[in-house]
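Curious: can you check?
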Amino acid sequence: MSIMAKYAQIFWPEPNDVDVGARNASVELLRGQFADLTPREAIKVAAHIADILSGSDLPADLSAQAEKAISDKSPAFVIAGKEQQGVVCLAVAALALARGEVEEGAGWTASDAMAAALWSALTLQDPLDHSLMEELRKDLIAACRDRVRLVAKASRARKDVPDVGNLTISEDAPTGTRAQNAYKRATAPVIAALKDNADIDREELDFLWWVLGDYSEVLGCPLADREPMCRAVAAGIEGASMLRRLPSDGLRHAALRLIVQSDQKSLAELIEHLGDHRQALGKGFVDSWAKDIPTVFPLLTALASTEAATGSSVRLDARGWGSRAMLEASMVDIENRGSGVR
């Protein structure tokens, strides 16, 4: 199925087969380039895509990347004056990436990071006036949300532990290391499976003990002592710190299980409502790299700042803000672990 057939109508009233085919090829080229990014790079690209969908100018590097991907298939194309084509191709490439197959592992590839980042960024974005662009934005949100949920579940599946393989010693191997290398090859799959399973077990135990304790180290009191909005944000941030993978629906429900129904607040209203607790909740993110990407981490950035919060008019209840806190904080914690920060 042609992924661009639906979205080419954004910039062409009546797209033809040849043009759509060329743009499909350009989108596939961009998708491959996105897949080769590091998770941190993917998060930054996701922020740019969210920004340009909401009306910001194309950054020079993404503009050049989109122009090359399109002109490689349509040599006469020049992006000046046709920026919308570049925006759509970049967004559809991210959509194709999110819809791609989930890889085995800890669930933190460029595809996973970009999906989580776009889900975070776009869900706190005001609807677009352009109906077809708004449809693309909604399709992106749905695909990224579905990928995060699938990755969160798949990355926690325990692996079957295989039997130890046969010891095979090559006659060409150096005499002193033959047995050692043969033993490593025979036991490597077993050890890898045991380590992966132990990592998942450790995460589960840490998280469940935290849930049972129902105590906030950040706020220095039982979570039950705080009103719903503050409690939800604290639970989201601290629950995320126990995770080694993106949060699943079940983990999110467990962390927010005692959050009662509340009214809805915008980000600015939430920050004002948190009052003196804002500093404690944001302390761990004051020097974080996430502050440089407020489009993806609007809540954490606002908590870590001393300025009045601004931005989206989207309003969420306490559970909504708690879920957002867990998603944003989990991305930061997972990336920090992968980068050796903690």
